[in-house]
Design goal:
Protein name: Actin
GO molecular function: kinase activity; phosphotransferase activity, alcohol group as acceptor
Shape: globular
Family: Belongs to the FGGY kinase family.
Strand content: 15-25%
CATH topology of the largest domain: Nucleotidyltransferase, domain 5
Radius of gyration: 22 Å
Helix content: 25-40%
Number of domains: 2
CATH class of the largest domain: Alpha Beta
Largest sheet: 7 strands, mixed
Pfam family, one: FGGY_N
Mean pLDDT: 94
Keywords: Kinase, Transferase
Number of helices: 18
Distance between the termini: 61 Å
Length: about 525
């Protein structure tokens, strides 16, 4: 009897579910869209119940579609969960009921907490324990923000749960956190010993009791679905739940990353570029966590831009109403229309550069007070120039992160795999190839993180062999090869891009202060 696996990806703007066979054949898929809440500048949060509703709806619809083509309930062998980096995690009470919106990865409100830690903590020792730096991107600074600004919530919080852990608890009643999610929180996890670090939490002022005691691998079964939840999803009672982990790492897994040197760029709302290594120390300017596959031996090291597709969406929604109307009248995508207009323009969009720092910036800049910038504007520039500059700016941000690994870049595979929504753009793929100098490959199948979750689930349940894991379920297609002349132009322009932030940093910080982002002088002692 054929067996099938459900893979679910809880993303920033949608939840996607699919059912795949043990050979990777896609049987059914469904998705539910939503948007994070951004009530103030640099804030980005989500009510966990939005994720739960989307999870239930997408899985139930997926199961229904599979049943309609002859799949039986007993053939579904398990479910695995990929989820966005939940930042602070979901603050829950002892019944695991949410107490406060989850401060997700793109939330940068914890600027004062970040400054406080940088000023008062032994950063070398913190890095030695956690393998990570200090920034408002990391979940532990967001937890401190809740502690400092929502003391009633803090007092009532029993645990902080990553989204996949909270959903898994909802399904099974069991409570656990995977190592990839734990490591991504930053200053709470011992990267050498693979345990929560009471020493690190003591240094930054967090309570170890608020971390769920059970840590397991991403391929481990956390529990089985209860009868009530199985009925809600259209599944059989007792189906095992493989815990899964961070979406960027799982999408990377789907992209074929299995051994040190493999690397993938994920371009969705944000950008994450990551590679595998076995060394004990990551690059200081990047993020480090256990990988979702063989995580006790392999580390996933990645950097990322806070906005990628998010910057493109912002530009289109704010400035391209005419193009949206034209696209609607023609029955085409507005992005396809803008791409047609931008593609004939030369590299560099006639001397225009965009810094995509619309929610501060992550690696290697690490500055929540950084801001988006168009540099080089003049009267000859059109919306097409600006659109191309936005895409080029994101490609520069990708290359900036790849540059941050220094000499280790020599050990990387000489092809760049790209996953995420950006793969729908031929122009974007060519620009990335021309900026980085790497041939760009994409996955033939449409869904990456959800497919990676399904494969990870099959691994955890022993339904695929290690050889089949190494081979993977997805197929790579070469989408763009570098143009040598364009690459030379982009290398010259990248030097300008790289110099803009240092030159404008003080001005960016002054503008951030005008927006009400607390300066360093307003922080309090870590032990208050």
């Amino acid at each position: 009897m054929d067996k099938y696996i459900i893979g679910v990806d809880i993303g920033t703007q949608s939840t996607k579910a699919l059912i795949a066979g043990t050979d990777g054949r896609l049987i059914a898929q469904a998705s539910v869209a939503y948007h994070p809440d951004t009530p103030r500048p640099l804030w980005a949060e989500q009510d966990a119940r939005v994720w739960l509703d989307a999870f239930v709806r997408s899985v139930r619809e997926c199961v229904t579609r599979a049943m309609q083509i002859g799949v039986r309930e007993e053939q579904i062998a398990g479910l695995c969960i990929s989820s966005l980096y939940g930042g602070s995690g979901i603050a829950v009470d002892e019944q695991c009921e949410p107490l406060y919106p989850c401060l997700i990865w793109m939330d940068r409100r914890a600027t004062a907490e970040t400054d406080m830690i940088r000023a008062q903590v032994d950063l070398e020792q913190l890095f030695a324990i956690t393998g990570n730096g200090v920034d408002s991107y990391y979940g532990f600074t967001k937890m401190l923000w809740i502690k400092n600004h929502e003391p009633d919530v803090w007092a009532r919080t029993a645990w902080f749960l990553p989204p996949n852990s909270w959903i898994a608890h909802y399904l099974t009643g069991e409570l656990a956190v995977d190592h990839s999610s734990a490591g991504n929180i930053g200053g709470v996890y011992d990267m050498q010993r693979h345990v929560w670090s009471e020493e690190a939490m003591g240094m930054v002022g967090l309570d170890p009791a608020k971390m769920p005691p059970m840590l397991i691998d991403s391929t481990d079964v956390v529990g089985t679905v209860t009868a009530a939840k199985a009925a809600q999803l259209g599944l059989t009672r007792g189906i095992p739940i493989v815990l899964g982990g961070i979406d960027a790492a799982i999408a990377t897994f789907a992209g074929g990353v299995r051994k040190p040197g493999d690397h993938v760029a994920m371009l969705g709302t944000s950008m994450c570029w990551g590679y595998l290594q076995t060394e004990s120390e990551s690059g200081r300017d990047l993020v480090c966590m256990p990988y979702v596959y063989k995580g006790q031996a392999q580390r996933y090291v990645f950097g990322g831009a806070a906005t990628a597709g998010g910057a493109v969406t912002w530009f289109v929604e704010q400035f391209c109403q005419a193009e949206q109307a034209q696209a609607k009248a023609q029955g085409v995508s507005v992005y396809a229309l803008l791409e047609q207009q931008a593609a004939p323009l030369p590299p560099g969009a006639h001397g225009l550069i965009f810094l995509p720092y619309l929610m501060g910036e992550r690696s290697p800049v690490w500055d929540a007070r950084a801001s988006g910038t168009f540099a080089g504007l003049n009267l000859t520039h059109t919306r097409a120039h600006l659109y191309r500059a936005v895409i080029e700016g994101i490609a520069f941000a990708l290359w900036h992160n790849m540059q941050a690994v220094g000499e280790r870049r020599q050990n990387l595979d000489q092809r760049l795999v790209v996953v995420g929504g950006a793969v729908n753009s031929d122009l974007w793929m060519q620009i990335i190839a021309d900026v980085t100098g790497y041939p760009v490959y994409t996955i033939e199948e449409e869904v990456e993180a959800a497919m990676g979750a399904a494969l990870l689930g099959a691994v955890g349940l022993g339904l695929v062999s290690e050889a089949e894991v190494e081979q993977g379920w997805t197929h790579l297609v070469c989408r763009a090869t570098p143009n040598s002349q364009a690459h030379q132009v982009y290398q010259q322009l990248f030097a300008v891009y790289e110099g803009l932030y240092p030159a404008m940093q003080s001005s960016m910080h002054a503008l951030a202060a005008a927006r009400g982002i607390a300066p360093v002088s307003q922080i309090s002692d870590i032990n208050d």
